[in-house]
Design goal:
Layout lengths: L4 H17 L3 H5 L2 E8 L7 E2 L3 H8 L2 E16 L3 E14 L4 E15 L2 E10 L17
Parallel strand pairs: 1-6
Antiparallel strand pairs: 1-2, 3-4, 4-5, 5-6
């Protein structure tokens, strides 16, 4: 691999976002380690491994592409491990016609493999209102 680890990791993240937009579950899963730990926005609380079946099911709930943008992406990496933090925006249209435009927080941990960088840890979240309602604060924007 040539170039900096940061460049290679950004390229990996770009490939994942393109695969999500195309709703290509095998292409998304290919960027995850077989033992990846995922704490995503959707249930369950934790997924271990590549969740290609879960992705395929989720993709069927969307019309057209699912746009995910990484903002304020910070990549800290050495030769073998990396940590990325970002504010992410997801946009698209659900099959029921609902328009989605939500910001959320993301953290990725990656490990270098023989053929590139693999996601070994993913954590996405939205804050919740601490006013007693415990409602997700999906109306926040940076």
């Amino acid at each position: 691999m040539t170039g900096s680890p940061q460049d290679a990791i950004r390229s990996t993240i770009d490939a994942v976002t393109r695969a999500i937009a195309a709703k290509d579950a095998p292409a998304v899963a290919a960027h995850y380690d077989a033992a990846a730990v995922q704490f995503s926005l959707a249930p369950p609380l934790r997924v271990i491994g590549r969740d290609e079946a879960g992705l395929k099911e989720w993709f069927t709930t969307w019309q057209g592409p699912i746009w995910i943008e990484f903002h304020d992406l910070a990549v800290t990496a050495n030769d073998d491990l990396a940590l990325c933090t970002s504010l992410n925006r997801m946009r698209g249209t659900k099959t029921d016609g609902a328009e989605v435009d939500v910001w959320y927080r993301g953290t990725l941990g990656l490990r270098r493999a023989d053929d590139g960088w693999r996601i070994v840890h993913e954590h996405t979240s939205v804050p919740f209102y601490m006013d007693g309602s415990v409602k997700a604060a999906v109306d926040l924007k940076p």
